[in-house]
């Protein structure tokens, strides 16, 4: 007796050729559901294609999140705005629409340690990845160490492309350690190369008046700030550290813990 041929075999073969694995995997099951629920042919096809798109998006987000080298994976849904009243939640959620990335503008997040600056940076990076915008994240120390090594090996121009190619470059921890003359100049080269071509998002625990000490040269710091701030939004978080708050709640030390203020104001420029 000749075995009955599965009528969906040709679909599976075609899906393999067209690289539609999710459609091929679900075609039979969804056909049964469609028959039972009396879906139209259009609804059945749309359901299969939607599953394929969703699977591809999940795979894309997973792989590009790894490629972006995020320090952790958090979105704005994990951010407790109630604990940072100086931060305008509506403004931050508007920034998550990424219109500033479309315009090649910048985002600068200032504040003392532990107030959620890196969380906001990562949330914006995650939002960009969901929107299929190329992203790369790095601390300023890792960036200048990488570029200095390339400089010493006479391959700086090629390595610089790593930091100019992504539409969004996230740089964390500006100001935690001072840079020497060469490192400051290499960082300036990155900022200058991206100016009005690609977006920068960075965090700093120093107010702008202290950047001269960070970069070892007030003139160079002014040149860097001129390019960063020209088309930018500046968020200044003046709240308390999440980590210190948790320790106080645990009774490890009193309310007199230091809360270092920033010297720059909470401003936004178009």
TrEMBL record:
Nucleotide-binding keyword on record: yes
Keywords attached to this Swiss-Prot or TrEMBL record, sorted alphabetically, are: ATP-binding, Nucleotide-binding
Q: Which GO terms describe its molecular function?
A: ATP binding
Chain coiled-coil ranges: none
Q: Which SMART domains match?
A: AAA
One Gene Ontology term of the biological-process aspect is: DNA replication
Record's Gene3D superfamilies?
P-loop containing nucleotide triphosphate hydrolases (3.40.50.300)
Q: Where is the AAA+ ATPase domain?
A: 103-235
Name of one Pfam family that matches:
IstB_IS21
The entry sums up its family as follows: Belongs to the IS21/IS1162 putative ATP-binding protein family.
Q: What is this protein called?
A: IstB domain protein ATP-binding protein
Give the originating organism.
Answer: Sulfobacillus acidophilus (strain ATCC 700253 / DSM 10332 / NAL)
């Amino acid at each position: 007796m000749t075995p009955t041929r599965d009528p969906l075999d040709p679909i599976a073969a075609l899906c393999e050729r067209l690289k539609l694995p999710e459609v091929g995997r679900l075609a039979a099951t969804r056909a049964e559901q469609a028959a039972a629920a009396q879906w139209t042919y259009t609804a059945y096809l749309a359901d299969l294609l939607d599953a394929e798109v969703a699977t591809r998006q999940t795979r894309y987000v997973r792989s590009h999140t790894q490629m972006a080298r995020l320090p952790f994976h958090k979105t704005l849904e994990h951010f407790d705005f109630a604990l940072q009243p100086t931060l305008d939640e509506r403004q931050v959620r508007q920034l998550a629409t990424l219109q500033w990335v479309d315009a090649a503008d910048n985002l600068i997040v200032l504040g003392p340690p532990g107030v959620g600056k890196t969380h906001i940076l990562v949330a914006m990076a995650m939002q960009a990845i969901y929107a299929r915008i190329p992203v790369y994240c790095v601390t300023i120390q890792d960036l200048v160490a990488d570029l200095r090594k390339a400089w010493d090996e006479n391959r700086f121009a090629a390595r610089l492309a790593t930091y100019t190619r992504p539409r969004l470059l996230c740089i964390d921890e500006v100001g935690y350690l001072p840079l020497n003359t060469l490192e400051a100049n290499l960082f300036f080269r990155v900022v200058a190369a991206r100016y009005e071509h690609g977006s920068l998002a960075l965090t700093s625990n120093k107010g702008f008046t202290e950047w001269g000490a960070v970069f070892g040269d007030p003139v160079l710091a002014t040149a860097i700030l001129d390019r960063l701030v020209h088309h930018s939004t500046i968020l200044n978080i003046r709240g308390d550290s999440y980590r210190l708050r948790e320790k106080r709640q645990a009774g490890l030390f009193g309310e007199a813990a230091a809360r270092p203020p920033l010297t720059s104001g909470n401003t936004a420029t178009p």
